[in-house]
């Protein structure tokens, strides 16, 4: 039987694979697409810096932990692009299967704790999950804006798609969503980097 430490080190080794999962969002300089680990790190730092704007009081460490672990399932399930409607049909099942295997590498108590934390993020009902989801959704907006809308242009993304994707983003922070709409989305609609398909 593996020791507790053996299991923890196995999990730590396994999640290194997250660095190989490429997302559709480009780095701010447009030089390449970011990976899942970079996305998680960036969103976690955002949570630390921007927690004062949460709609409700949050446990920052819990939120940061949630963000650091929320995409490890993509090691097995792959990244499902935000606007890939076909991929979304199988996303939940692929990710549940992945969560069972990857969190299952941990000692029983940590397996339950972090698997439950992942489900909490997915359900998006607690203050921490709502704010984590806000960070998860705003981070790509920041990079898209900084990179000149590269991924939006690559995929022909429209403002209606972005607004639909972000229909719950304000539940974590109304202030940050309003800022994002005005500073990250609106100028890119006006410049044509985001297709304007609404009046």
Structural class: mainly alpha
Hey, roughly how much beta strand do the residues contain?
under 5%
Radius of gyration: 17 Å
Total beta strands: 2
Order of helices and strands: HEEHHHHHHHHH
Explain how this protein is built.
- The chain has helices at residues 4-14, 36-50, 60-69, 74-77, 85-103, 108-123, 127-146, 150-155, 159-165, 174-190, and strands spanning 22-26, 33-35.
- It has 199 residues and is mainly α.
- It has a two-stranded antiparallel sheet.
- Strand 1 (22-26) and strand 2 form a beta hairpin.
- The radius of gyration is 17 Å and the shape is globular.
Quick recap of the structure?
The chain has helices at residues 4-14, 36-50, 60-69, 74-77, 85-103, 108-123, 127-146, 150-155, 159-165, 174-190, and strands at residues 22-26, 33-35.
């Amino acid at each position: 039987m593996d020791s507790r430490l053996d299991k923890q080190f196995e999990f730590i080794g396994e999640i290194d694979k997250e660095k190989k999962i490429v997302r559709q969002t480009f780095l701010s300089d447009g030089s390449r697409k970011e990976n899942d680990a970079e996305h998680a790190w960036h969103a976690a730092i955002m949570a630390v810096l921007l927690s004062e704007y949460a709609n409700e009081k949050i446990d920052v460490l819990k939120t940061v932990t949630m963000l650091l672990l929320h995409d490890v399932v993509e090691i097995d399930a792959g990244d499902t692009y935000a606007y890939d409607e076909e991929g979304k049909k199988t996303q939940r099942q692929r990710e549940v299967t992945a969560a069972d295997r990857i969190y299952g590498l941990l000692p029983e108590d940590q397996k339950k704790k972090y698997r439950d934390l992942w489900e909490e993020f997915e359900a998006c009902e607690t203050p921490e999950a709502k704010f984590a989801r806000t960070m998860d959704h705003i981070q790509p907006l920041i990079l898209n804006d900084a990179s000149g809308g590269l991924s939006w242009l690559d995929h022909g993304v429209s403002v209606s798609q972005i607004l639909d994707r972000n229909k719950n983003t304000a539940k974590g922070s109304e202030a940050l969503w309003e800022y994002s709409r005005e500073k990250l989305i609106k100028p890119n609609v006006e410049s044509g980097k985001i297709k304007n398909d609404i009046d």
